[in-house]
Amino acid sequence: MKTISFNKVWLTGNEKNYITQALSEGKTCGNGNFTHKCQSFFEEKLGSCKCLLTTSCTDALEMCAMLAGIQPGDEVIVPSYTFVSTALAFVRQGARIVFADSRMDNPCIDEQKLEALVTPRTRAIVPVHYAGIACDMDVILAVAERHNLLVIEDAAQAIDSFYKGRPLGSIGHLAAFSFHETKNIQCGEGGLLAINDPRFVKRSEILWEKGTNRAEFFRGEINKYGWVDTGSSFLPPEYVAAFLWAQLEALDSIQQKRKEIWNMYYQNLQGISSLSLPVLPDYATNNAHAFYAVCATPEERTALIRYLKSHGVYSVFHYLSLHKSDFVKNQKWEVEELPQADKYTDCLVRFPLFYALEPDEVKYICEQIKSFYTSERDEASFGER
């Protein structure tokens, strides 16, 4: 029986060469030649004031929270349907998280409900571009401007995706990207902080360099460096940047292949009445980070995942709503009902999507999904619809 994993790491072939080059240059601790290449790549692509590689997207978000000056008692608006790091970075600074619901047509934050969540303690809004599909940033920016709030884009999944022609990660005051092995471009573990507001540039380098003004020293702007602020060890080693550079060189070809796979899913899964396919708003582009669908009930999703597994296909559900987590319950925060976030928690399923996935494998997966929804499915196992 054919077995198709949910994800498979793809290498361009240059990763080992560049790692060897980094080692031969005798610079392994980070902030060397490959780090500068990667950061310059994103500064040009995004038009950001400054981009800094980090060891993870979580680290980049933690830097965002520090740069935003989040203090105990501040509130930060975060979608409930997201990875824990989106909220955790601000909790570490003492913030109370105010959870927002998802849209009805896709898992991104419901922009129309943001205004009602703002209080005198609100300091920032953190939109997450789920599956690389843009939130409606004009609406979010308008709310932020009315209330003097920062907008911090969680662009973990959003490389090479756009909102009205603008790259995601270039629109908010700050943004964070992920290069985890499940992302379109990966280096195992890695991230990027994008600074789009010049007032944060100088401090970002200090936080990145363990609270010192070391970056200025290396540029010859000062004759010695010392401890001037808080910070941490956020920068990755140079061999990780070398690996990432090999991937970035192949960005266009990677994206072309992933989009072909995404389109095959979308075309082949039309017409299944109880399976809702992704909705792409007219202001957004698709970077083919993930192909997901939404089942009619939790029972249907469980049965579909089980059926696919029995036929050698590994599909998965995704996030569990953060507002219902044990951590939030222990904080005793007052939390509203968020029905759309719960719907995606209970009913969203993700199918395999990776560079090495072949057209005949996508066709096989789609055939098994359609088979489940026709002759093979057991109506009684789905519960009430």
TrEMBL record:
Spell out the InterPro entries in the cross-references: DegT/StrS_aminotransferase, PyrdxlP-dep_Trfase, PyrdxlP-dep_Trfase_major, WecE-like
SUPFAM superfamilies per UniProt: PLP-dependent transferases
Which Gene3D superfamilies does the entry mention?
Type I PLP-dependent aspartate aminotransferase-like (Major domain) (3.40.640.10)
Q: Which UniProt keywords apply?
A: Pyridoxal phosphate
Which residues does this entry mark as bearing N6-(pyridoxal phosphate)lysine?
183
Cleavable signal peptide = none
> Which GO MF term does the entry hold, naming one?
dTDP-4-amino-4,6-dideoxygalactose transaminase activity
- Biological processes, Gene Ontology terms: polysaccharide biosynthetic process
What Pfam families does the database record attribute to this sequence?
DegT_DnrJ_EryC1
Please list the residues that make up the active site: 183 (proton acceptor)
Top-rank taxon: Bacteria
- Record keywords: Hydrolase included? no
Q: Which NCBIfam families match?
A: ECA_wecE, PRK11706.1
Similarity-based family = Belongs to the DegT/DnrJ/EryC1 family.
- What is the protein name stated in its UniProt record? TDP-4-keto-6-deoxy-D-glucose transaminase
Protein species of origin = Phocaeicola massiliensis B84634 = Timone 84634 = DSM 17679 = JCM 13223
- Cite the source lineage: Bacteria, Pseudomonadati, Bacteroidota, Bacteroidia, Bacteroidales
